[in-house]
């Protein structure tokens, strides 16, 4: 699937039940994971989001948009993410 982020956009605080690979088409994607240092990947780079880790993803730019492709494999009825409150 693909996702687009405007400057300053972020995902909800969430977990995944399976690994998720994020490939950056445009811009820079920053992932903050509980208990870990933030990771930023830029255009042409990819990263794997680990399962069962609390996280949120950001477009930290104030000017540039962000476009990513997300790859994952899961059981058919498994939700993509589990939001946390």
From TrEMBL:
InterPro entries noted in UniProt: Cupin_2, RmlC-like_jellyroll, RmlC_Cupin_sf
Pfam family name, one: Cupin_2
Name listed for the protein in its UniProt record: Cupin type-2 domain-containing protein
All copies of domain Cupin type-2, residue ranges: 3-71
Superkingdom of this protein's organism: Bacteria
